[in-house]
Each structure stands twice: as C-alpha cells, then as structure tokens.
C-alpha cells in the first residue's frame, strides 16, 4: 500500500511522508529533481534541481510511489503531472527515479498481430498526424530516420543528406538501375536517387499523408519519368529490383514476420543486386522490450505493435532467407545525435505544435523523443545498417567490392 494514501490522509501528513521518501531517494544517489504538490508546497532533492515534477492532484502520487517510465510517461501524457525543465533532463531524472525505485528491467515482448489491416492502421496512427507537424521539426527533406554525422558539429540538414548519400553509395547505385525503397516516407531517398544518381525508383508506404506529399515532391523535382510512389503493403510487391532499401521500416514488421519479410526481399532482389536494411535493433539478446517500462509507453502511445529484434536475430533470419550479409555498421551514436537535434527543433516549435495537434499529442511526442534520445545514448537500443546480396550469386560475387573503399575512399 502507498505510504501516501492521499484520499485518507491530510495534506500535512502527505507532505511529511513525501519529504521523507524523497530524502531516501536523495541518499540513494537518485537524480536531482523537485516535486511540487497541488497545493504549491515544493520538496526538492537538490536546491539546484533542473527538473520539477508538478503533481496536479493527490492521485498523481501513484506515479511516484511505484515509478517506471511507462507510469511516469502516462501520468505526464494524461495531464496528471506536469514536468518543468528541459526534456532531456526530465527523462534522465525519470529514468534514475525508476531505477532507484526498482523499476522493471528488460521484458519479453508479448506476441503481436501483424495483419495487413493492423499494420496499415498502426502506420496511419503514427505517420498521419499531419505533414505540417513533422515538417515543423524534421530537416527540410523531412527524413524521419537516423542521420549520418561526420562530425558532432554537423547541422541536421547536412547530416540527413549525408545519410542518403551514404546509403546510395554503399549500394553502388548507378544510372538506369531499378531501386525499391520499402517504407519510403515522404520520398527524400527516392527523389535523390532518381535526380542525382539516375536510378529508376519505386517507393512504397502505408501512410496516405506520406504518399500524397511524396508524389508532390517527385513532380517538383521533375523526375516523374523515373520515380514513383505506391500506397501499398510490402507483402503485395512483385517484380525484380537491382537495389533495395528499407530505412526505418522493419521495426513495424514484427518478430514472427521477419522470416517472411526477408524472403520477400530475397524474391524481389535481382541477380547481382544489393539490399540494405536500416533499422532500430534491441540491445537485449532475447529481443526484449527496452528497460524501465519505456517499451510499454511507446507501444501504447507512439508505435502500436512495434517490435525490435536483436542484431543476431536479424542476421539469422536474413541468412535463413538466402541473403548473404556483406557489411554491418552501427549508427547508434548517430541516432542519439539526430534525436538531440529533433528535440531542440521540437522545443523551439512547441507552442505551434501544441496548437496544431493538441496538448496530449504534444506531450506524447515530447516524452517520446526525449526517451529515445536517452535510450540510444544509454545503449538500450541500437541502429544497424546491414548490406546483403543473394547467397551464391555469381554476379554479386564478381561485382561486390572486396573492401569498403567504394564507401569511404572518395571522402
């Protein structure tokens, strides 16, 4: 039972017990933060605390009595508590509070259904907020995936263009080749591949908003003759392609669907072709959820039914599908940097975003971006680019370079 029992105790008793509880947390080395009660009384672990958790009602104490990131996040999103301070400071305080209180560690993911209808619904929930919402805090190309930083000081727009070129260079994209981008977002990669590399590109998405804007951008770039976007599920694809990219999409595929997903890539990849899977991976060898309840928060509010496989599972399923892994690169630190840029842009646009999507959704995304930045910086998740060819492919055996000089040699 909670020592606060707010419905039964007078405010003065609650305040004394809360202060005693926070004192124990201070002694345990928990991150410095302050708690402000609904009556204005403030209790601080440290007078220099950068974060204040404001409890709007007595029932908000439940989020602190048995805290993890899911419970604290839910209380924030539902307006039971307010969090005053920079979101990165706030998420660090929440994580340390959860850890000090014995919050849940990594857990196995529950089985998820990934039918065409369910996946379409989940994608639309996440991506069809509004194009203006994403435009307000992404880079000008609206690349919603990990950027590629050559140095810490790179601007976000520069790093995202570098990421697109890094992918297209890794795949050795040449004029006239057929490129498929599974989960093409708002079309940045296919437009660049068509316009600057001369490829014939097809992108697919399940998001109506992404589809509409990608078509518009293709027209504006003047590449309609060699670039198209389709509103469709990857499971309905047919044909053959010289190069295949999947960037920030396979997190939606599902652990049990990975074998079929990679068999699809194998079937679509032509002789001599190269495929790349760029996606978030679990740091847990058993592909469990992220620690301290973070995964539960994301599943409920942000990415319904998303699942993160460990790198070892990804490589195993790629190999079982007949794909030979040629190159693996970790971009975890790059994603932590990317998210820091997104957070600063999101904070700068805060009042406009809140007006655009409402307070609750604004809170969801504020918590989500900060949580992801913290998670990548702590190594809770990874980001891997995995390049593969068809196994026993004589053309790929002859053409694929022996070294990485084709990626880095010209830089």
UniProtKB/TrEMBL annotation:
Alphabetical list of InterPro entries matching this protein: CFA/CMAS, CMAS, DUF7884, SAM-dependent_MTases_sf
Location of the DUF7884 domain: 25-99
Tagged with keyword Lipid metabolism: yes
Residues at the active site: 372
Signal peptide: none
Keywords: Lipid metabolism, Methyltransferase, S-adenosyl-L-methionine, Transferase
Any Pfam family: CMAS
Keyword ATP-binding: no
GO-annotated biological processes: lipid biosynthetic process; methylation
GO molecular function term, any single one: methyltransferase activity
Similarity-based family: Belongs to the CFA/CMAS family.
Annotated protein name in UniProt: Class I SAM-dependent methyltransferase
Lineage per the UniProt record: Bacteria, Pseudomonadati, Pseudomonadota, Betaproteobacteria, Rhodocyclales
